[in-house]
Amino acid sequence: MSHASENTTGEAGGGAQTAPSSLILPPAVILCEPQLGENIGTAARAMANFGLRDLRIVNPRDGWPNGRANAAASRADHVINAVKVFDRVEDAVADLHFIFATTARSREIPKPVRGPDEAAVTLVQHGSQGLATGILFGRERWGLNNEEVALSDEIVTLPIDPTYASLNLAQAVLVLAYEWRKLATGGALPFREIEGAPATREELIRLFDHLEGALETANYFRTEDKKPAMVRALRNILHKAALSEQDVRTLRGVVAALEGRKPRASKIKGPAVTPKGSLLGGVKPEAAPTPADAEEE
């Protein structure tokens, strides 16, 4: 019999963003006779990381509730507070339509064996139809016995190194929870890189003119016959960089600093002028004037 509060189907935690997985019923996680409260807590934390919330425990060795589990859960309170505790595995899985049993070794039980990504496909398919599913995890020391595995529909195992198949309970929960969420949300990430607006062609041309003018003063183009090819090579490099407006402003500031000019806030169009005696020219200026027609940050 369950003697803990019933689990809820609401979204976990305050401020959680609605994901595509909100329409897919997540699988329950069933821990069979876990020995350490810390393992229960870290398993709950792993569940919360990837949107699972239904944690069921069968005969925890140290009883329930467990202060060490709460501490290890690291504020995954919505999972810990909704834990359901059972005396038998049969009772813990009674309401489920499909069950995976986890094991790291081959069993003499004729059941399909899936990898974590394959298991996620089945869990998402059932969950999208509103069918309750679950993943059964065994004891830390020896896992599930054959009678418990026999209660499942299929077996799920991880592609671990067989020479060291010992996997922490929370780590196993984490891998399967990750695979489920990746598929349920289409791999959606919580945020992406914020990209600035791409530079306009005019801004790029002004950068080219500024840089090439500074290089001309620095005697970079040593022979006139090679200058066109060198200019094309430089422009091609900058084109490949797919510069943003901010990138262009930054590079023009760099060129201006090497020219020995003080930056200015105004943005006056026109080709930049490199003063004689600039750093690019090989001579450090004492007080180089700022050309009126150059653009700086």
Walkthrough of the structure:
The chain has 297 residues and is of the alpha/beta class. Helix content is 36%, strand content 9%. It is built from ten helices and seven strands. It has helices at residues 37-49, 67-72, 77-80, 89-92, 116-128, 146-149, 169-184, 201-217, 227-240, 245-259, and strands at residues 28-32, 55-58, 84-86, 98-102, 113-114, 133-137, 154-156. It has a seven-stranded parallel β-sheet. β1, α1 (37-49) and β2 form a beta-alpha-beta unit. The termini are far apart.
Q: Strand count, sense and closure of the main sheet?
A: 7 strands, parallel
Distance between the termini: 70 Å
Helix and strand sequence = EHEHHEHEEHEHEHHHH
Secondary-structure class? alpha/beta
Give the strand content. Answer: 5-15%
Radius of gyration using CA atoms only: 31 Å
> Regions with pLDDT < 50 over 5+ consecutive residues?
1-20, 281-297
Strand line-up of the largest beta sheet? 3-2-1-6-4-7-5
Q: What's the number of helices? A: 10
Helical residue percent band: 25-40%
By oligomeric state, this entry counts as single chain
According to DSSP, the number of beta strands is 7
Mean pLDDT over the full residue set: 84
Q: What is the overall silhouette?
A: elongated
